[in-house]
Amino acid sequence: MNAARDRIGSTPRLLVTGGAGFIGSAYVRDVLGRRDGTRITVLDKLTYAGRRANLALAEDDPEQAARLRFVHGDIVDPTVVDPLVAEADAVLNFAAESHVDRSILDPEAFLSTGVIGVHVLLEAVRREADRATSGARSSAPRFLQVSTDEVYGSVHEGWSRESDALAPRSPYSAAKAAGELLAMSYHATYGTDVVITRGSNTYGPYQYPEKLIPLFITNAIDDQPLPLYGDGLQERDWLHVSDHAKAIDHVLHHGDPGEVYNLPGEAQLTNRAVVAAILERLGKPWSLVRTVEDRPGHDRRYALDGTRLAGLGWRNLTDFATGIAETVDWFRDNDAWWREARSGAWDDYYRRQYSARLAASREA
Ligand code: NAD
Ligand code: TDX
Question: Which of the ends of the chain has fewer CB neighbours closer than 10 A, N or C?
């Protein structure tokens, strides 16, 4: 591996799909905030999870705004995707339906975005690579697929390596695995320049409040019950969103074509330990936590081996104690942002997912 070599140049034009979501918007804010000349087009469908407000810091800064374009559209639509890929040096695909519980309730959108959407992006990248071969453009675009540790399935012991078999166990993670495999097949068959990242459970500012950490912070602020699935001893490896975004950028610039990179968080914790840290920071009592019926097919543990990423010269910058304190404070200070996210269709979702569970809940 050659960490020094930059595979896409220092001032690229990037197409960032899903760039109005949690991790995608952190990536956009971070890269534009470097003020190094990089130009970004965001393509986002603005589903319930995508919000233009997540890009306000960049859009309100004239120097950054001049290098940012926002396109409202769907990655499954080639008439939108093709001209955008034609202008890009690299495509980073963050777009996905990303919540496991919703994939259990309604799987279809996960397959449309996670499989057909990836196919449409790959076809566009393949066409542009052909144009590069015929001299119609200077170089072929790179395709980075943002994937997840969940593709390995539940890992009872040890740490998953990139060469391990994929064993996804939810419609969400099965769709993510399918997207990855499709991308890799383009590398093998057409020589498409593909890199894949498998990030750990991510947390931080601007995370949609359906996920464990922001749901529990915002419920606790309002003294609402915190619905802990099963025994709460499931383990996740928590990665701060700014490290996730920066690690993706590192792989974009330095990763080898056709390679997969785990992005671990190096903070392996039970859900109970995470909840305790949130409550301590907020000064709220454990009695808010309620044991509820478990998630079906609930993965017990994820854990990533980060040797390959370390070999590329990347190190995380934010430890969990600092990151969770800052995240709790961000939600406390940005009440309007999360109350807006928890409006509209939120109540229906919350009722479907939690009403019966909370009615039958017990002390945790
Ligand atoms: P998110 O749900 O916050 O954001 C997803 C974004 O994609 C939203 O802005 C949404 O509007 C957009 N989108 C959805 N379908 C689209 C479509 N068909 N066309 C265009 N845009 C579409 O998700 P996130 O947590 O930011 O996750 C981003 C990526 O990272 C996903 O691919 C996810 O699988 C992966 N990932 C997430 C985590 C995590 O813990 N959140 C961990 C590892 C990997
Ligand atoms: O209400 C809840 N109660 C609860 O106990 C919720 C929402 C979650 N949990 C548990 C389930 C998991 O063990 O907390 C843990 C974390 O749950 P989520 O935040 O839903 O994350 P997870 O299912 O682990 O998946 C996340 O990490 C990998 C992201 O949502 C994915 O997009 C990513 O790929």
Answer: N
Residue 336: Cβ-neighbour burial (10 angstroms; 0-12, 13-18, 19+): exposed
Q: Find the DSSP H helices in 283-345.
A: 307-311, 320-333, 335-341
Q: Which ligand gives the minimal distance to the CA of 147?
A: 1
For ligand 1, what atom is nearest to the CA of residue 199? 43
Closest CA to ligand 1's atom 12: 18
Ligand 1 centroid from CA 361, angstroms: 30
Mean pLDDT of 135-152: 98
- Indicate if 87 belongs to the active site: no
The answer to whether 293 and 269 have CB atoms below 8 angstroms apart is: no
The rounded Cα 183 to chain-centroid distance in angstroms is: 17
* pLDDT for 210 beyond 50: yes
Helix (H, G, I), strand (E, B) or coil at 44: strand
Provide the token pair at 189: 């068959």
pLDDT tens, 167-205? Answer: 999 999 999 999 999 999 999 999 999 999 999 999 999
Q: What is the pLDDT of residue 4?
A: 58
The mean pLDDT of 248-256, rounded to a whole number, is 98
Q: Do residues 299 and 234 touch, judged by C-beta distance below 8 A? A: yes
Closest to 90 in 3D by CA, of 11, 8, 150 = 8
Lining residues, ligand 1, CB within 6 Å = 17-18, 20-24, 43-47, 49-50, 74-76, 94-98, 113, 117, 146, 148, 176, 199, 201-202, 208
Report the share of the chain in percent with pLDDT over 70. Answer: 99
For ligand 1, the distance from its centroid to the CA atom of residue 98, given in whole angstroms, is 5
Q: What is the pTM of this model?
A: 0.98
Instruction: Using the predicted structure, report yes or no on whether residue 354 has a pLDDT greater than 50.
Output: yes
**DSSP classification of residue 267:** -
pLDDT at 3 over 70: no
Indicate if the pLDDT at residue 162 is higher than 70.
yes
Query: How high is the pLDDT of residue 8?
Result: 87
197, two tokens: 């990242």
150 is catalytic: yes
Annotated catalytic residue 172: yes
Residues counted in the chain: 364
Closest CA relative to residue 6, chosen from 260, 308, 254, 258: 254
